[in-house]
Amino acid sequence: VSRPFTAGERAMLVDSRGRRYLVNLRLDGQFHTHSGVVDHRTLIDRPEGSEVRSSSGARFVALRPTLAETVLKMPRGAQVIYPKDLAAMLMVADVGVGSRVLEAGVGSGALSMALLQSGARVVGYEVREDFARTARANVASFLGDEVHYCVEERDIYDGITESGMDSVMLDLPEPWRVLAHAEGALRPGGILVSYLPTINQVSQLRSRLDASRFAMAETLEVLHRTWHVTERSVRPDHRMVAHTGFITHARLLDEP
Ligand code: SAH
Which atom of ligand 1 sits closest to the CA of residue 135? Predict the structure, then answer.
């Protein structure tokens, strides 16, 4: 659906060098850069994709930020999961409309936003009260308050109250301490997904999975290499993010 920009929503301004800035539009707002000032008013009532000029003549294109762009720019307490990994995690967990997902720790809420945008109902456990607050605020500012989202301030190593969940998604340092709780929280066939920065942690998790009711374990990483494309030169970009995290997933079997 095409909707012009209105006051109160968030816009992304992209300059001629591709740099991106997020702006919360206000009727009397101004966006200041080293290349001049853009009055928010010049954007309001204009369609997405419009070009605006700053006071010094610099051009900006205005678009609504995607989830990936928002995640990389939003306020964060904890490190967020990169968009490339969020996409893969949604697929391995088979997340769709109405999926019931238990997530821990919630951190800045990047994974929560990806799950909710896909239509899942999410319960999050987060030990740090300040992170829980940041996550709730990030989710509300991107998705509004019509989503099914509840963050509880608690330690998942102490147990999980929910049951019959379709998936349990973990982004914390010792996921093996959650396996017994996840066995009780998931429905048979439910999916466990863990995101870990080091392969030592993955080894530990995989050996604990072998001794659990989980099966079909798989570990993967996502390499995302962008390309430089012009008429005269087409080649991979010189820089890429070489390492983020490893994704491990497994399915819960019924009682042995
Ligand atoms: N996936 C999040 C980032 C999570 S960072 C995102 O995409 O934004 C890891 C989080 O796990 C931190 O906020 C930390 O406070 C939390 N955490 C660590 N151990 C935990 C535990 N035992 N129970 C609940 N949360 C925990």
Answer: 8
